[in-house]
């Protein structure tokens, strides 16, 4: 394969080395601060985005925003993403990432692709406020089979609506200098639909794609960011000795003509240079005989016996760029080792196939250009001209100018807090085990608070739903009552309902319940794991007197524990990430 890095495993191992505390590669150029917001678990993207950015000579800082909270993060200037101060805001949203309602069915608008258009507008507004570049990932077309031949021919059918919505977003963002687009459909097609999806991992951890998709997607994102920052490919250095002139070179005759055709497709302004260890005159004569089509291409010549490393440095230096921005094209085995040391990020090794040359140069960024900003006559995009999919949906789908409170009101969230009925606590145990972001991290199990005959303990769980669907049991709370003080030692929230104001609803309900039973204080005990900052921040902000519905005041306090003071109960991970 003409790809570098060679495979997904290379990226993962390289990123682990580079993020290790003892890692020190010497001084590097400051890299972009990239925030990723996704409607699914996108953590596997990190090494595949970070490694190519790092290989390009930068030191990127990557931030993975909370799961499926794109609108919530974009609407608030005090959100975790806003506080990160991103240079680039990558947004990956799939319309099918809506919850299923009870019985496994979806609400009518749950997978409606039109919900992506107002979401893109919200993300663009946030990127402008934060001074960031929006990189919107168009979602792949839905994998679900069409609903029969009638749906295939219906311009309002499922696939037609998905295509129209994708093109409406593409057209909207094409006119804006603060945004650019990558297309996940291209990535899925390159991998193959059957090999791109990971249904089992999606059910377990909401990761919809295989590692190969994240590998290719990360490379695409890195190339977009590098191109926008002037760090894309600035030229192609073709090693004539390894490609054509050496006796064992893979190209000659018809294949050399195909190679010339591939190089002739380089974008205007992308400089091409030939390097050889022979003299220019000697190499020109040989090339005219062996590959006349290559001899006719406008190319700079770098010759007179220098090494490939020296020739690469000379070509890059003449352009005022680093060697990592030059794609090196060679054939095995003449100079592969030599050039690999000089240009590990953009080396393309070919064995005689012009198609392999094209794919290799494509992966090396040789065909990349700065994403253009398209101006449409009259300032009207095609999406706004007679396309009913451009109409905005109301309610929970945020548009520019909506504030966070209005967004929450539009969701219509209902959270019913009650004591579990019956001995089966599997749903509560699952929430407690899988929660890592919103949790008190003391590792108390729900069973601890459901002890029969123990009047000092109380277990509560919450059933959550909103206008998009029914999430089932999504929160669990464990209380140990000691006189007028209720000690809350278990408070876990499923990630699928975070960012919807559920924790506020549950706190109000808990305050009312405590007041009814004569308690005057709610003391939340927690351990800061570094990952559960949503819960820690919420508790610190909630530490004050709260008025119960019957008029009584209940004081909310928080008590931080270390691993040593947590009574031997602390969370070391385990279970699938929620």
Automatic annotation (TrEMBL):
<protein>
    <submittedName>
        <fullName>Subfamily IIIC HAD-superfamily phosphatase</fullName>
    </submittedName>
</protein>
<feature type="region of interest" description="Disordered">
    <location>
        <begin position="376"/>
        <end position="398"/>
    </location>
</feature>
<dbReference type="InterPro" id="IPR036514">
    <property type="entry name" value="SGNH_hydro_sf"/>
</dbReference>
